[in-house]
Amino acid sequence: MVMVVSVIAVLVVLFAAVYRIIRAAEATKVADEIITGTLERVTLRTDYLRTGSERARDQVRAKHEKIGKLLKSASVRFTGSEDKKTIEALMKGHESIGKNFRAIVENRKITGPHDRSAELSAEIEDRLLSQLNMRVYETVLLGGGLQKSSEEALVSAIRLAGGGIAFVLLLAGTVSLINSRIMDRAITDRIQKLRDGAVVIGGGDLNHRIDLAGDDEFSDLSATFNTMTAKLRVSYEDLGKKIEERKRAEEALLREKQFFESLFHNVPGPAYVFGEDGRFVRWNRYYQAVLGYSPEDMAKLSVLESVAPSDRKKVASEIERVFREGYGAIELQVLTVDGKEIPFYCMGACMVIENTRYVIGVGIDVTERKKAEAGILKLNEDMAARNIELEFLNKELEAFIYSISHDLRAPIRSMANFAKFLVEDYSDKLDKQGHDYLTRINRGAETMTRLIVDLLRLSKISRQEIIPAMIDLSKMASSIAEGLRETNPERNVAFSIQQGLTADADARLMEIALSNLLGNAWKFTSKKEKAHIDFISFQQDGKTVYCVRDDGAGFDQDHVEKIFWPFQRLHADIEFEGIGIGLSIVERIIHRHGGRIWAEGDVGKGATIYFTLK
């Protein structure tokens, strides 16, 4: 009877201990799932921030809801007063994480990728991410506290089980000794084996097995012991894995913290944090080096004390705006410890940590920019003076060219008139050579007259006011082509003019340019029985390129750099008449429209002139 009671007591203690162990293991599992879920939520959140996809956002929300359910489940499994406080803190942190993530999502909805406030949105998102990271770090730490509490409960249950069983078995052993005269020695040995096995298991050796052969209560009890220790060993292994995962998570959080600390201190410019009282609470090495204060003096320094007295009023106003609106930027003079003033452009954003508002800011040294601005201002002043001088010189040049052209025209006109008189009055007295001389004189006078007219035109084009308007280049080119046909109707020339070509340009100047380009093409195809002249356009690097192309005489591409020089000709006068200024006029017109012009050619195969307009 005593043996039966002892066995029942052992089973009661055993089942009570197993129940406590299972409860502790379940609590540990919940704590592990809270930490694991928190880290998985960080991974999903990172994926959402990288891709911005709705799927990633929904995964974050689903994981967030699952963690909330786990926290509710934990409030049932953890009944200690300290555990209750930890769970309450986890609940608050969970709500804060949800609000911050929703704020990030809303912030991304209201700000487009090309919005002018994209930089502000990025600053807000960085601030929210910083708060999220702090909450995640707190969640992992609090979850670790729950893990530790559940592990302690598990160890306590195991020890209680071992001690209780040892105590009951010890009691049973004592009763067995009292009844040793009645009980068989074999029963005593079996109890001793159970006792020894329980002590070994209670000492933490979960690989130990109690081997009692037979088909009685002792063998059943040993089998129960073995089953219990097997379950405990599995729970311990799972617990070890969870602890290892938690350590890795803590190490990852520590690395992240170290990364942000390194980023803060090594950013190439001043970085600082100050509170609503205006005192610095954090600063990087760069800012301390700029100011020249020791760390102790920096801790006592206020923001306004670190700027020039002339800037303190506007800096105070900007700080109020940052706390009120969340962001601000200002250009100011930083005051160093030795009284030196250094120009900086500073930007700051408001952030809230544990219900306390701070401003985090960065600065950029604009000393070189100030010097550059002063240099630019000086250059602008010099340029204005140069422009006035250039305008005066242009007027003098215009007067000079007009005077020279007027002075040259009179003798040339006289020379041409006298040559005409000779032909009319003394033609019968001149021989063939004399007539040839007179023909050359007339041709030279005409060439000189055209040269003076083209020089005046080139001069006027450089100063003529641009009056832009939308013009139909196709229609203009067709009209010019028709005029060319009328000058020599017997020629067989096929014009191909692309329809719908338009440009925002000066109509008078563009007509001069097209007349020169199409006229050159007409002239240099005069040796061909059947010629082709094209006026087309195409797109290149996002710009419209116009071109006039012919299949006439062409030119040597090695001399292409001379083609736009005034009075430079690649063909002899005996082949094609001209003075070599037409393409110079065209180049001047295209440059005045903000475009560029270039040429390609091949001897005997034609030439193509390309140009663009702004």
UniProtKB/TrEMBL annotation:
Residue span(s) of domain PAS: 256-326
Predominant localisation class: membrane
TM region(s), chain numbering: 157-178
Catalytic activity line of the entry: ATP + protein L-histidine = ADP + protein N-phospho-L-histidine
All residue ranges annotated as the Histidine kinase domain in the record: 403-614
Gene3D superfamilies: 1.10.287.130, 6.10.340.10, Histidine kinase-like ATPase, C-terminal domain, PAS domain
Keywords: Kinase, Membrane, Phosphoprotein, Transferase, Transmembrane, Transmembrane helix
SUPFAM superfamilies per the UniProt record, alphabetical: ATPase domain of HSP90 chaperone/DNA topoisomerase II/histidine kinase, HAMP domain-like, Homodimeric domain of signal transducing histidine kinase, PYP-like sensor domain (PAS domain)
Segments forming domain HAMP: 185-237
InterPro entries according to UniProt: BphY/WalK/GraS-like, HAMP_dom, HATPase_C_sf, HATPase_dom, His_kinase_dom, HisK_dim/P_dom, HisK_dim/P_sf, PAS
EC number, as in UniProt: 2.7.13.3
Name of this protein: histidine kinase
Organism field: Candidatus Sulfobium mesophilum
Species classification: Bacteria, Pseudomonadati, Nitrospirota, Nitrospiria, Nitrospirales
